[in-house]
Amino acid sequence: MRTMSEQRSTVVVVGGGYAGTMAANRLAAESSFDVVMVNARDHFVERIRLHQWAAGTATPTRDFETLLSARVRRIVATAEHIDAPGRQVGLDSGDRLDYDWLVYAVGSSGRAAIEGAADHAQQVTDWESATRLRNRLAELRGAGRVTVVGGGLTGIETAAELAEAGHRVTLVTADEIASSLSVRGRERTRRALEHLGVVCHEHTRVERIGATTVTLVHATGEWVEAATDITVVTTGFAVPDLARRSGLTCDHLGRLCTDAALVSVDDERILGAGDAVAPPGNVPRMSCQAAMPLGVAAAQSVRALAKGEHPVAAYPGFVAQCVSLGRHAATLQLTHKDDSPTRGVVTGRGAALMKELICRGTIWGLQLEARHPGIYPAARSTASVDHRDPTPNGQVVP
Questions:
Q1: Rounded-to-integer distance, Cα 286 and Cα 345, Å
Q2: CA distances (Å), 4 to each of 33, 41, 91, 95, 263, in order?
Q3: Cβ-contact 302, 324 below 8 angstroms
Q4: Do the beta carbons of residue 280 and residue 392 sit within 8 Å?
Q5: What is the 8-class DSSP label of residue 114?
Q6: Three-state SS letters, 216-283
Q7: Which of left, alpha, beta for 56 (phi over 0: left; psi -120 to 50: alpha)?
Q8: Strand 277-278 relative to strand 256-257: parallel, antiparallel, unpaired?
Q9: If you count Cβ atoms within 10 Å of the first and of the last residue's Cβ in the chain, which end, N or C, has fewer?
Q10: pTM for the predicted model, two decimal places
Q11: Tens digit of pLDDT for each residue in 157-199?
C-alpha cells in the first residue's frame, strides 16, 4: 500500500448517483484532492424519470461529461469490498484502489418480498429493471393489463404514466394511496388516477404473483385471483450490502451507520451520503431531495477532517413531496422540514409544470456545482461533531 502524499490526498467516491456526483463535484474543487468516482454504469441515470423511460415518454440517461467536473476521474466498475484498515476498495475487475478518504454513496434499489415476484414481477427502481419493463411492455403490441403493486409515490407515478400510455392499469396497495400525503393530497391524487382510468384497490395485500395472475387478499379477507399481463412491484427499497459485507456497522436495512456529520462510526476515513446512509435520529427519506445536499455535506466533512477540524452536522430539510400523474397533472404536497405534510397542496397542470421544473432542477444543480463549486447548499446545522465519539447523537444499530 502506498504512503499518503503530503500534498495531495485521494478521495474515492463509490456510486455515481445524485449524492455521489454532487460529492465528487464539490471535492474536485479542492486542489489538495485527487477525486476518483467508481460507478457500475458509464452514464448518469435520472432515477426520478425511470417510470417515464418504461412508458416511453422520456430518456433518463445523461453523459457524465455534462454533469461531472473535469477534475474527477471515472472508473466504470462495481465495488466488491472495502478494506477499511488497508484503505483500499476492491473492484469486480480484480483491481484495488487506494484511498485516503472514501465517500460511500451506493444508492438503493428495489425490494420485492412477495411470493413469485423474483420469477414473474417487473420493477422500475434502476436503469436495468426499468429497461426490462420497457421491453416487456413493447412485447404486448398494444394496450395490456398491468398491475402495479405499491401505493407510494413510485407506484402512483408508474401507474399514472402507464395508464396515460393506454394500458389498463390496476394499482394495489396494502395501505392508502399516497399515505405520506395529507388527506387533501391523497384525495386529489385518487381523483387524478380515476380520471386516467386506474382501478385502485386500497387496503389490499398481494399474496402471490404468477406469470399471468396476481392473488389479492382484500381487507374483508376475500381472496381474488386477478388476470394480468405484467405485474410491477414498487413496494420498497433496499440498499446494496457492500458496507455489511465489508464489516462496517449498518442499520437493520443495511445502510451505513454514521454520526451526524456523516462519518462512519467505525472509521473516520469513510463517510456516507444518499440513500445508503443512516445518520442518528430521524433518517431522511430515500430521495434526490435528500441525496444531493447530503452529498455536499459529506464532501464538506471530508474537507474539515482533512484539515484537522471537526465536521458540521448534516440535517437535510424537506420542502415538498411531488408525485407526477402522467404528463399533464401532478400533486405537489408542501411539507415541514421533517417531511410531514402541511395543509398546502398544489394540483393539476400547475403542479405538473412545477414537478418538471423540480426534475430539471436536479440536473441543473449538478451542472452548476461542476462549473461553480460551492454554489449548491449543504444539509447542515451549525453544530460541530466530534467523530471520536463512537455513538454520537444516538444509539448505533449493529
A1: 21
A2: 12, 29, 21, 19, 20
A3: no
A4: yes
A5: S
A6: EEECCCCEEEEECCEEEECCCEECCCHHHHCCCCECCCCCEEECCCCEECCCCCEEECCCCEECCCCC
A7: left
A8: parallel
A9: C
A10: 0.91
A11: 999 999 999 999 999 999 999 999 999 999 999 999 999 999 9
